[in-house]
Amino acid sequence: MSEVTGISKDEICRTLSELGHILEIAGSSPFKVRAFANGSRALENWQGDLVTLVKDGKVTSIQGIGKGLAGVIEDLVLEGESSAEEEIRSLVPESLLQLLRIAGLGPKKVRVLYEELQIESVDALEQACQENQVQALAGFGQTSENSILKGINNLRRFAGRHLVSQAREVASRFLSAVEVVNGVERAEVAGSLRRHRETIGDIDVLVATNDPEPVRDAFMKVDGISEVMAEGETKSRILSEEGVGVDLRIVEPTAFASALHYFTGSKEHNTRLRQRARERGWKLNEYGLWNEAGEALETPEETDIFEHLGMAWVPPELREDTGEFEIAESLHNKGAVWDELISMEDVQGVLHCHSTWSDGKGTLREMIQAASDLGWLYYGTGDHSRTASYAGGLSIEQLAEQRLELEELRKEFPHMTILQGIESDILADGSLDYPDEVLAELDYVVISVHSSFSLPRDEQTARIEKALRHPATTVWGHPTGRLLLQRDGYEIDLDHLLSVAAEEKVIVELNANPKRLDIDWRWGNRIRELGVDIGIHPDAHSTHGLKDVLYGVAIARKMGFTAEQVTNCLDPQDYLQRLKRCHQPEVS
Ligand code: DGT
Ligand code: CA
Ligand code: CA
Ligand code: ZN
User: Fold this and answer.
1) What gap in Å lies between CA 249 and CA 475, rounded to an integer?
2) What atom in ligand 1 is closest to the CA of residue 262?
3) Which pLDDT score is estimated for 443?
4) Are 242 and 300 contained in the same domain?
């Protein structure tokens, strides 16, 4: 954050990149367009205190930022606004920027739509597509018209939901502000965030106190509120500057557990549980639990609610009405509790990490150091393979050179087991990206689809099955290719492919990148049934990205996994054995 105007570096980067897009849509000179795009990227990669740099008048010392752009940055940092920005924004209608949010539409195409068809809004574009006006334009065609319609559909479908990484940040800002207020006995985040859903609608903060007013005041003073939507005695709602809604509910301390249970949800879980209460002639709601005589039962903790209703406490992640009631009841009958689900401390190491050898931002040394700092005992490189030239995929020679660097790093990090792997593109015909003898030299191979997303279901399934059956394949990376809030995965027979993975002993990846969280948690029960092994992999493209493992762990908990059921919770020796087991028949 700039202490002058409060504008953050990220925000400035976003503005510069957006201005570049506007210039391109407006048909400005390619030099000017590139200056903004490159400048945004340069600033993003630059580490340091921007305010100091501006005050010293040294913005142009950042490589890739010229005089003109430096002026814009200085104005933004010092004044919070810039006349150049206003001028550029006035070049095209603001609603055009919405079009850029449609998958597959860049500034070039938006410019054509605007120039040729005077399209200024998403609605207008949808209509033009439906009237087949877009396919007639140069550079478009029927396929792109269809994919624009699909993109519009997705845009609307995903509007108003947020990635869990962003929601967590916003939630902790509000939680930490209210939990320290005098008189607050308990404070927790409930709702979908507590259930570890993969995307979040809004954040639900619950506070127990006998003195609501100071809590509400503290809540309203949190940084980055863009709008107060409701402000009441016990219920308030704001919109954060990130566009995330935050609900605050204040309850009396004795009602905390029942309110926490209620506002954790899911709605479906709540309905089933209330039904159970009703079957006994009891009543359950957000205020408490009452027996048939109308007497309130004491429920100081959530466990008490479940206990009264004849069940073991259900971890919040599993409250989706997907079989948790039957398990909780049988555990209760045995006097047992739910198995401890996996946690971050159980993770012993990771693979599938990118470095500057391909498209990562961290060098191998930086990445391994960061993994070691996280307390991990093994680290596996997983750069892109040679066909992924857009992502700096490694040639056979580079793989060999990388091996030499790894030899050195093994000496530097003797406590780490350092593995060389690759994220091999699955080629269109299902073969892998290097000759067998090259693959055989690696410690493991992740196979991933990065192209030909729209093959028919049968072909896509056959393509991936072939790759899964390749003897070098160890891990199936981001199995469905979905990007949360952006696009669905490719069409495949996932159930069949999971059985193939089980048969071939290929580890199925739970990709921990918060944009992916792929494979979807809804497959958890089926995965256990098939006996498929999963691994939680960061797919990190920076040292920071390694920490994404925590989002993967959250999803693994939602799948109901314990540490014993996740491959990268094995100690290094057992892990190496497990990687070698792929494709080899079980010895009994
Ligand atoms: P979200 O915000 O869409 O990601 O999902 P949630 O689950 O956080 O939903 P939200 O914020 O609308 O409500 C929080 C919880 O409150 C929800 O999980 C269950 C409870 N709840 C809300 N409305 C109802 C309702 O009509 N019936 C029942 N039984 N519970 C409700
Ligand atoms: Ca919510
Ligand atoms: Ca809510
Ligand atoms: Zn990938």
Assistant:
1) 44
2) 20
3) 96
4) no
pTM: 0.81
Q: Which CATH number is 576's domain given?
A: 3.20.20.140
Distance, CA of 114 to CA of 125 (rounded, Å): 10
Q: How far apart are CA 323 and CA 338, in angstroms?
A: 13
- What is the CA(382)–ligand 4 centre distance, in A? 9
Residues 441 and 571 reside in one and the same domain: yes
State the ligand closest to the CA atom of 191.
1
- Residue 587 within a domain: no
In this structure, the residue with its CA closest to atom 28 of ligand 1 is 267
* pLDDT value of residue 81: 85
Give pLDDT, residue 10. 80
pLDDT in tens, 51-69: 899 999 999 999 999 999 9
Domain membership flag for residue 3: no
Relative to the alpha carbon of 385, which ligand is closest?
A: 4
What does the alpha-carbon distance between residue 361 and residue 541 come to, in Å, rounded to a whole number? 6
For residues 194 and 269, membership in a common domain is answered with no
Q: Is 266 in the pocket of ligand 1 (CB under 6 A)?
A: yes
Q: What is the DSSP string of 351-389?
A: EEE--TTTT-SS-HHHHHHHHHHTT-SEEEEEEEBTT-G
Q: What's the CA-to-centroid distance between 310 and ligand 2, angstroms?
A: 28
Number of folded domains that form the chain: 4
- How many angstroms separate the alpha carbon of residue 169 from the centre of ligand 2? 15
Q: Does residue 270's CB lie within 6 angstroms of at least one atom of ligand 1?
A: yes
Q: Which residue, 251, 278, 293, sits at the end of a domain?
A: 251
Long-range contacts of 122-128 (CB under 8 A, 24+ apart): 122/95, 122/98, 122/152, 122/155, 125/99, 125/152, 126/152
Write out residues in the chain with pLDDT < 70, as ranges: 1-6, 584-588
Residue with tokens 């557990």: 257
Q: Which atom of ligand 1 is nearest to the CA of 247?
A: 11
Task: Please tell me the predicted confidence (pLDDT) of residue 586.
Answer: 54
Ligand 2 centre from 189 Cα, in Å?
9
* pLDDT tens string 313-358: 999 999 999 999 999 999 999 999 999 999 999 999 999 999 999 9
In a domain, 2, yes or no: no
**Structural domain of 289:** 258-338
Calculate how far, in angstroms, residue 577's C-alpha sits from the geometric centre of ligand 3.
Answer: 46
Same domain, 144 and 167: no
> For residue 525, which of 534, 515, 537 has the smallest C-alpha distance?
534
Question: What CATH number is attached to the domain comprising 178?
Answer: 3.30.460.10
The whole-number pLDDT of residue 7 equals 75
The pLDDT value given to residue 503: 96
Q: Please state the atom number of ligand 1 nearest to the C-alpha of residue 265.
A: 18
**Per-residue pLDDT at 546:** 98
Distance CA 519, CA 556 (A): 10
pLDDT at residue 1, as a whole number: 44
- Residue 277's pLDDT is 95
Residue 37 Cα to ligand 4 midpoint, Å, equals 25
Q: Which ligand is nearest to the CA of 264?
A: 1
Beta-carbon neighbour count of residue 496 at 10 Å? 12
Q: Looking at 89, 123, 157, which one is the last position of a domain?
A: 157
CATH number of the structural domain spanning residue 334: 3.30.210.10
Residue 468 backbone phi and psi in degrees, to 5: -65, -30
* Ligand 1 proximity of 267 Cβ (cutoff 6 Å): yes
Is 585 within the bounds of a domain? no
